[in-house]
Design brief:
Layout (H helix, E strand, L loop, with lengths): L1 H18 L19 H20 L9 E3 L5 E3 L5 H5 L6 E3 L2 E3 L4 H5 L9 H7 L9 H10 L14 E2 L3 H11 L14 E8 L5 H20 L1 H10 L10 E8 L7 H11 L4 E3 L2 E5 L1 H10 L3 E8 L9 E3 L4 H13 L7 E6 L3 H13 L5 E6 L6 H8 L5 E5 L2 H5 L11 E4 L9 H5 L4 E5 L6 H5 L1 H9 L7 H19 L7 H11 L26 E5 L5 E3 L7
Helix pairs in contact: 2-7, 8-19, 10-11, 12-13, 19-20
Length: 555
């Protein structure tokens, strides 16, 4: 990423010189208007920017020590509470909290004179009339240390005061000069490029269910570009500046997971994308997650059983914790009085999904009813079932997919409660489970009819209007939701195509998106990356009818 920072700085240099940012102490490499051309100069500049980025994001000064700040009423702030990013956000575009508005401190916001280029009264009313001079290095230091802006007016009392050294001020200024200074890769004046990632092993039917929705959505966006451009040129709404022709790239992965990073890199080098949207996978999403984090590309609501839940996550949004959430919600249900069992047997295949969900279930059941494990290596036949029943469990949890459950012996649910995961059934309940109805319970991600049908009506009407058959409710509903979130968030970027700003808009918009997801409740807050936090337990009755056995369970 350092090469990108250098490129941005070189493009910004004339503006920085003209606006006086270098007054009161030139930044290394920009003295006398000379670009840093030698390796030593470039290294010095990169080091300065890296130090400023650490101050901004982590509140760590040039000496490696935590920065302290004085907040309102003399409260001492330290650690993440003192980081600029906490209030001004990673993008630098700021936010609002109650009656307070946290101002943008991007390169353009700080180091350009703030005037109104708009002349229409309506646009002026939308944008406000505030004007102020550009910041210089001295004025920036005064604002950070004393709380006075470039026009000499006091900043809001919520703005902390920092006793930064001159060296740290220069480093922070160097980083702020790069902050959201240019549009992120994957977007130009005409097009915005998006990608969706599909792991190997996804069924052709599920792949088609997702791509049909995406293709129809992109077609709609493309057909509207001309009218959006006309509205933009007319100056009716500033938001229309965000419209571009959508170009969707399908990044199909193949082979073992340790080769996926190289494949993603190749795809990206062929055509950088602004963001990734949707996506499908039954295996661990960790390699795709790591790629998105390293490249700082938003990845918006892939439908995966095994999302990456450990480590840093700035750019990956997930619908839920996947099979881990299923395991934790079921464990909570069984551990409470409503579970009504003294011992549990969990059956799973020793593959990636089976091992992950059984491990999570075992951890969540610690201290609860007795738990036994039984691995399924062969067919789920009468001989295996006799072996399972011989353990005398009070209930059986079947962490198995549709193909295995179709082979379930007809007598399996005669006396024992059987628990299965809807996530592992690819959205379709095997007919064999219907034979054991009454004793089959399911960990379920949605609400039940009639509310379920009413809530999804909007999207189903959209599907009908596009002549798309409803073949995979979960995949299709969630894909339409992900595309709508992306569209709404892009619209709110106005003409500031920053990936970090996109992430922040998604955090704000998810709970307000008119199109539903399959989950009965979704929401995000600043820094949150999991939209659906709970599950319920339902029983499977005759003809596939569902009956609720629990409230919404949030582990």
């Amino acid at each position: 990423m350092n090469g990108v920072w250098m490129k941005w700085l070189r493009r910004l240099q004339p503006a920085l010189l003209a606006l006086g940012l270098l007054h009161g102490g030139a930044l290394p490499g920009f003295a006398q208007g000379v670009n840093p051309t030698t390796k030593a100069e470039q290294s010095e500049q990169q080091t300065l920017i890296a130090a400023g980025r650490r101050i901004y994001r982590e509140a760590i000064d040039g000496a490696g020590l935590p920065i302290k700040a004085r907040g309102p009423a003399g409260v001492v702030l330290e650690g993440s509470d003192a980081a600029c990013m906490t209030c001004h956000r990673r993008s630098g575009y700021g936010t609002s909290e109650g009656k307070y508005s946290v101002r943008p401190i991007t390169a353009k916001a700080l180091f350009q004179e703030q005037t109104l280029a708009e002349h229409a009264p309506r646009i002026k009313a939308q944008l406000g009339m505030r004007q102020r001079p550009a910041y210089t290095l001295d004025l920036l230091a005064r604002a950070i240390r004393g709380g006075t802006d470039s026009s000499g007016k006091p900043l809001e009392s919520v703005m902390p005061r920092f006793a930064l050294s001159d060296t740290d001020i220069r480093a922070l200024a160097a980083y702020l000069a790069t902050l959201s200074a240019q549009d992120s890769p994957g977007v130009d004046e005409e097009e915005i490029h998006l990608a969706t990632v599909i792991q190997p092993g996804v069924s052709p039917e599920r792949r088609r269910a997702m791509l049909d929705i995406m293709d129809a959505f992109v077609k709609d966006k493309t057909s509207n570009v001309r009218s959006n451009e006309q509205r933009r040129d007319a100056g009716i709404m500033r938001m229309n500046r965000s419209y571009r022709k959508w170009v969707l790239h399908v990044w199909e992965l193949s082979g073992p997971s340790d080769s996926w990073d190289a494949q993603l890199k190749t795809y990206y080098e062929q055509q950088p994308v602004f963001a990734m949207v949707g996506g499908l996978g039954n295996a661990s999403w960790k390699p795709i997650h790591a790629f998105a984090e390293r490249m700082e590309i938003p990845s918006v609501f892939a439908q995966v059983d095994l999302p990456e839940l450990d480590g840093e996550n700035n750019y990956n949004f997930y619908f839920s914790r996947g099979l881990t959430l299923d395991a934790q919600a079921l464990a909570k249900y069984l551990r409470e009085p409503g579970g009504n069992t003294s011992s549990v047997l969990q059956i799973y295949r020793p593959d990636e999904s089976g091992l992950a969900v059984s491990t999570a279930f075992k951890a969540a059941m610690a201290g609860g009813p007795g738990l036994q494990d039984l691995k399924l290596d062969g067919p789920l036949d009468e001989a295996f079932w006799k072996k399972a029943v011989a353990t005398k469990p009070g209930a059986v949890v079947l962490w198995l997919g549709k193909a295995d459950l179709e082979a379930l012996p007809a007598t399996a649910g005669a006396t024992l409660p059987l628990y299965v995961s809807y996530a592992l059934l690819d959205g379709k309940v095997p007919s064999a489970l219907g034979n054991a109805s009454g004793n089959v319970r399911m960990v379920y991600p949605s609400d039940l009819p009639p509310r379920h049908d009413s809530r999804l009506l909007r999207t189903k009407m959209w599907l009908h209007s596009k002549n798309i058959a409803l073949t995979d409710e979960s995949t299709q509903i969630n894909t339409q939701f992900a595309m709508t979130v992306m569209s709404d968030a892009l619209g709110h970027l106005m003409d500031s195509f920053s990936r970090d700003l996109l992430v922040e808009r998604i955090e704000h918009l998810v709970a307000q998106t008119p199109s539903p997801s399959i989950y009965q409740s979704v929401s995000l807050g600043p820094g949150q990356r999991i939209a659906a936090k709970g599950r319920s337990v339902v029983s499977l009755g005759e003809r596939g009818q569902l009956k609720s056995l629990s409230d919404w369970i949030v582990p």
